[in-house]
## 1
Amino acid sequence: MTLLHVRNLSVGFPTPDGVVHAVNDISFSINAGETLAIVGESGSGKTVTNLALMGLLNNNTAQISGTATFQSHDGEIDLLGIEGSKLQKYRGRDISMIFQDPMSSLHPYYSIGDQIIEAHQVHNQVEPEVSRQRAIELLGLVGIPDPASRVDSYPHQFSGGMRQRVMIAMALVNNPSLLIADEPTTALDVTVQAQILNLLKDLQSEFKMAIILITHDLGVVAGAADNVNVMYAGRIVESANVFDLYAKPSMPYTQGLLDSIPRLDQPHTNRLSAIPGQPPSMISLPPGCSFAPRCSRKDEVAGGRCSLELPELTLRSASHSARCFISEGVAVK
Amino acid sequence: MSTPILEVTNLAKYFPIQSQGIFSRVKGDNKAVNGISFTLNAGETLGLVGESGCGKSTAGRTILKLEEPTSGFIKFEGEDITNYSPSKMKPLRTQMQMIFQDPYSSLNPRHTIGAIISASYEIQKLTPDGGVKLAVQELMERVGLNPEHFNRYPHEFSGGQRQRIGIARALALKPRFIVCDEPVSALDVSIQAQVVNLLDDLRDDFGLSYLFIAHDLSVVQHISNRVAVMYLGKIMELAPTEELYQNPHHPYTQALLSAIPLPDPILERKREQIILQGDIPNPVNPPTGCVFNTRCWKSQEICRTSEPALVQLGASQVACHFPN
């Protein structure tokens, strides 16, 4: 079952220098219970995409267009078309979000119990004591030792990894069908990252929820995702099943990203193959493929077509599409 | 390759913790670095890895005397600099430099790139051959910046370019030894590879020695000749790079290596992972015995009572009662 279907989402931010085109006409869908990874470098639009879906962008400063059809507990809704006050009913109940920085996303003045109870009370007409029991249950599930007494502790009394567990407990308190995890382990040490990724995997099967995992780490994606969207300069440049993507990257950018990671499982090489240059300005995107200025293979396509014309995102196989003239096999010299 | 440029012996750095109030007194010490010893040979890169709070950055700063060491010795080119005053350190600073982690906060936003890089000459009252401007522009070119951007300000550059500015600044006085404190952690992977390659080239061209501090074991593997793994202010294992990654002896090294996700979905899903329980203990009150015993699956009575020394085991040095 398709849980969320995003069509032609664009987000622009007007600035005195011009409109910053953070997200450009992207479409994707996610099925119930699966994990979709959105991977890309800073500024590629992966976070803005999800903030738009959650209604967390200010309509006065952002120009948003497109539709996002979501199967909520009481029928189909359009996340992008619905009024902010109505979205409140679904946010935190059907869809919730965990953020990158567990240090700044919890309120320092309230106990973690109060914060989780509040998230439960907003969506459930029950006695506060019921919500408190639910909070304790969730804290236990996410691996906080002695949850019945820790529920009254404050955020500063927890370590970074433990705070991220608290965030996860808060996000899951209403049994959402979709969890958006925005770089959930980036601020954590690698041994703690391994704990949190394992926890998310266990909770996903227990709660039967879909996860949109936003990350820049292709290692994390390899272990956690079912499907992957690779974003570059606000566009999806490749979208595939995780095994297909790593076995046969069909866009030079994806290939370049995979090549530029120093790997522990492969023999030591003297030089890393870096991608030259840097991402384009989001105010004036190049007319053709946004990656063309950095692409080492653009000369394989006749007539400088890569720099003139934007390739479409087209199918390579049933579960694999890419935005590239080279792997499309057209006009190759 | 065999003359040590830097010798560190039993180096410790404690930060006192004071109680609140008028009659503040020292309640305890944050034992950030707690007795580490190693040598660095000329032309060599020593990787210093560990998780946040293990003391790796403090170690780097103390070696450069940006922090006063609490105890231990630092010898730079055979000269004991442990108790040198700032004024006595000043001429030595031409020989030892630092590259910082955050390319956004380590450059003064009100100064032009030219002013930032040439400040080193001004402080040391040196005039390079051909004048300051020419020397700075040559440096900019060498690190891959456009020399015509001499008069631009830091905000006009991207993160990767700013890190190149930081590198040019560190190179200005032709140092022999550079502490690189997480120089690529703030950068995207495609840019990270560019900067790692640049650091590699510069080491060969200028005959530099690096102390390369990082939490990312894959980058460290790429750039280092030897690697030291730190945990809670102590070195757990120190070994030639190949040896450390192929044949880790310390349980903490094993866990750290196993926690790194591999960018290959097939391998990543079938390998056995060691997942450590819990968090790093508080360095104010570290565990007795081996500092890693609270999270170690091999821990026994002796690990809680006696601290293992860093001893030679094959090509490696390991601090563990039950090494692999």
## 2
Amino acid sequence: MKMLVCIKQVPDMESRFRVNSEGVWFEEQDLAFRMNEYDEFAVEQAIRVKEQLGGAADITVLSIGPDRVVEAIKKGLAMGGDRGVQIKDDHPYQKDPWQVASVIAAFARDKNFDLVFTGLQSQDRGSAQVGVILAELLGYACVTTLVGFELNGEVVTARRELEAGIRGIVRFKLPAVVTCQLGLNIPRYPTLPNIMKARQKELLVFPITGFLSDESLTTTERMYPPEKKGRAFVLEGDINETADKLVAILKEKTTVLR
Amino acid sequence: MKALLVCEYQQGKLLESTYELLAFADRLGAEKVMLLIGSEADLPNFDGKVYLADAGKVGEYNPDLHKRLVLDTVQKEHPDYIVFVHSSFGWDLAPRLAVALKAAQISEIVGVKDGKFEVPSCNAKMRRLLAPKTALAVLTIQAGAFNYQAQAHATPQLERVDLAVSTPRVEFLGYEAADKKAVDLAKAEVIISAGRGIGKKENVETIAALARALGGELGATRPVVDAGWVEHTRQVGSSGQIVAPKLYVACGISGAIQHIAGMKKSDFIVAINKDKDAPIGEVANVLVVADVMQFVPALTARLKK
């Protein structure tokens, strides 16, 4: 069983974002980066498949980006991936989902992966496109929004999260691309010995130029903070005074305090 | 300019979100044509052309079959835009069309500016303005971003379409119903919800105490439920319960889009968060900038007096 896990490194979403000098993305300096949360579910699920098969499987963890992404790849290896692949690109934010997916497809095309795992979406862009486009380019079956995954031989039975708590149950044959949603599993923490072991694992680095052949299909005009609707009345300062003020507001504006 | 709007339909019912597509097309000023893979028994209130494929034959959502039906309709109508709601249906199907048509896709649109599309980014803390480079573009719109007026009764002109059903790669087996709602939050007048910002499971009791002091119910966000801090029957958001109480207090909730979709219609919203820029501030009436675990006990103490 050959598996590919596609991960992205994203900034901590608690960060304060400033627009960069090009005006189309955020300034990356001073931000703390980590593995995209949805991609952690993808890595975990691949490892569970490998465990289910008694180890008879091989997991490649791939990320596109500058050298900082190696940290996210190493986390994937410390969790249980076998080999890392960095497709080196110093300006990943300039690529649109179409280009990102076609770069991964160009890498994966001749490698005959049986299963490709990725997150439902990235936390910074959230287009939810890359996994599906990749599957279509590879001619693989594709199931998105996975919250359940059960492999039997060459057949997967999966649960998709739909809206309002409803789930759809589907069945498909490998090869396939699946995109993982919160609730699929609880990703393991890498243990210290596994973090040490990950340092010895193979890490292949390729320049993106070898895989990128398409122009983007979209242009980013600009990035900006949302216009403040000015709805929220802000209370700050001393806790007790603030609490008094809030109680007064609730008495005036709502009917729930009698 | 013409927009092909792909209706949402599930288990015999046209989903209400379909009307948001009409509101979006009006916002664009586009001519509207709809495609419904559904049933004649539940048609949209729309006085234009609707292509209808029988879900009784095609079945519930299936990526390969639904893709074919949309492509067939595109050939007949030559739209400039194919529009979906950004849902488990829309985000699954839209990129497949983008590939088949080599068209640009723009996901989760929340606004239109000079013919360009505004989308959220970085957990809704930022926006990006995007434009397609291709003549035909596939778009998904954020659920709830384009409000529609109640539709007057209207009868569409139907054009039936059919499909030679081939064996799809992904086989749909059935639905699993939502878990029984032990707690019907929709009936609560006051909901006090806990988000990841409360820090740990032991702190849930502090939030629950505030809920009791206000005679309300405890709610929670998806991450808090997934972490096992609060039972999932209390989850508020697009994958949990949609609520509209008289008072909603968001404790340590940054305001993920999915959560906001579940509570933004509340009459009065108070957010308690240490981050003044958290997106929850966009829907809150009052934003208390404070450490939630210090502020909530102080508030509860006053309410008990």
